[in-house]
Amino acid sequence: MKIHAMERMEQTQKRKSVEGERKRSSRSDTSLYLRERNKFLQETQKEELALRKQELMKLIVQQQQLQSKQMQDFQAMMFTVLNKFGPK
User: Fold this and answer.
1) How far apart are alpha carbons 6 and 31 in whole angstroms?
2) DSSP 25-66
3) Distance between CA atoms of 56 and 68, rounded to whole angstroms?
4) Measured between alpha carbons, how far is 62 from 59 in angstroms, rounded to an integer?
5) pLDDT value at residue 20
6) Mapping DSSP to helix (H, G, I), strand (E, B) and coil, where does residue 3 land?
7) At 88, is the secondary structure helix, strand, or coil?
8) pLDDT for 25-80, tens place per residue?
9) Rounded distance, CA 40 to CA 33, Å?
10) What gap in Å lies between CA 7 and CA 22, rounded to an integer?
11) What's the predicted TM-score (pTM) here?
């Protein structure tokens, strides 16, 4: 019984050592991982920049609309003042 148990333990240890050797990655695996990660990061960064650009364009349009409204309000006020105090 003990011999059988020891054989199994030995087989288990051998299997684990073989699995451990297989888990080591080669340099090509590492460089492939880094290339894929870099590609993913670049794509993510491009998407973030595109979203930021859209947000900035919306902000520019809002600022232009606000400025235009302020100009119209100012012109209307000036027209009212000139009509009120202008020559009669």
Assistant:
1) 41
2) PPHHHHHHHHHHHHHHHHHHHHHHHHHHHHHHHHHHHHHHHH
3) 18
4) 5
5) 57
6) helix
7) coil
8) 677 888 999 999 999 999 999 999 999 999 999 999 999 999 999 999 999 999 99
9) 10
10) 23
11) 0.53
Give the count of alpha carbons within 13 A of 68, CB side only: 6
Cβ neighbours, 10 Å, residue 11:
10
At position 53, the amino acid (one-letter code) is: K
Q: Name the token pair of 53.
A: 């650009």
Measured at the alpha carbon of residue 64, what is the angle toward residues 61 and 65, in degrees to the nearest 5?
A: 85
Token reading at 12: 């288990």
Q: What are the structure tokens assigned to 1, written together?
A: 């019984």
Q: Which residue has the tokens 């209307």?
A: 76
Question: Residue 20 corresponds to which amino acid?
Answer: G
Confidence of residue 19 (pLDDT cuts 50, 70, 90): low
**Residue with tokens 């993913």, as numbered in its chain:** 40
Amino acid at 6: M
Tokens of 67: 């400025």
